[in-house]
Write a structure and sequence with these properties.
mainly alpha; two-stranded antiparallel ribbon; 7 helices; 6 strands
Length: 252
């Protein structure tokens, strides 16, 4: 049997589920232009924001690849770029399936400040963890995540709290799935981690750093799409109200 490569892994465990979700959305007619646009936008942002960070961790030896690679953009494998894109689409399509955008609610300046400070706290914790060599990967994730979390939480954490059931469901399923897939990839030797730059802590064989990475990246995507849906629906509410009022007046 031919050995499993990084490319075949991404195709089987990410691209195929993306195709299945796309089919489900097409059959159920749940495609929403705003969320599809948001998913595409987030895919581009994910590449721009993640690739330099990813490349730096590869350069300092946080992880290495144990399979044949198609090629590299700098030090980042092409397969990694495909993984970033397809993970974004996977989580985006799943969020589109389970989320019903709601334009109700508002956010005060004080609430925005609290959200920004909470994101900043994540970054401060990350910087503290980075002081320990074994905290390199964990701290790098927290520092990298902090600006995005500060932006999203500062923009509308009360909206995310109000939609917490949807947000939790949208994050939980793709995260659990990717945890399982990543655990399998590690077992197959597709990538390995430096014992000197990781904590050595694991959840059922999955390094805590990897578990955190998929959790925060899916949180980025889900929170971004839920907030986008809120903005679109919020701006649409006045127009809908005007139409209803006009219709009522004509009936009267």
């Amino acid at each position: 049997m031919a050995p499993i490569t990084y490319l075949s892994f991404v195709m089987a465990f990410v691209v195929v589920p993306v195709a299945i979700l796309a089919g489900v959305l097409a059959v159920s007619r749940r495609f929403r232009p705003a969320q599809l646009f948001g998913t595409g936008l987030l895919a581009g942002v994910a590449l721009v924001y993640t690739v330099p960070w990813d490349g730096q961790l590869i350069r300092i030896g946080v992880w290495e690849y144990g399979s044949t690679l198609l090629g590299q953009l700098g030090v980042v494998p092409y397969e990694e770029l495909l993984f970033i894109l397809t993970q974004t689409v996977l989580t985006g399509l799943w969020t589109t399936l389970v989320d019903v955008p709601d334009g109700r609610g508002s956010v005060t300046r004080r609430q925005r400040l609290v959200g920004v400070l909470a994101g900043g706290l994540v970054g401060m914790i990350g910087l503290a963890v980075l002081l320990v060599p074994s905290g390199t990967y964990l701290g790098a994730i927290l520092v990298w995540a902090a600006p995005v979390l500060a932006l999203q939480w500062g923009f509308g954490w009360p909206i995310l709290v109000r939609a917490r059931r949807t947000v939790t469901l949208a994050i939980a399923l793709p995260t659990a799935y990717l945890w399982a897939a990543d655990r399998l990839a590690i077992e197959l030797g597709l990538w390995t981690f430096s014992p000197d730059r990781t904590t050595g802590l694991a959840l059922l064989g999955l390094p805590v750093e990897e578990a955190l990475f998929f959790l925060v990246t899916n949180a980025f995507l889900v929170q971004g799409l839920v907030l986008l849906g809120w903005v679109v629906e919020r701006d649409a509410l006045p127009a809908v109200t005007d139409v209803i009022d006009t219709t009522v007046e004509r009936v009267e």
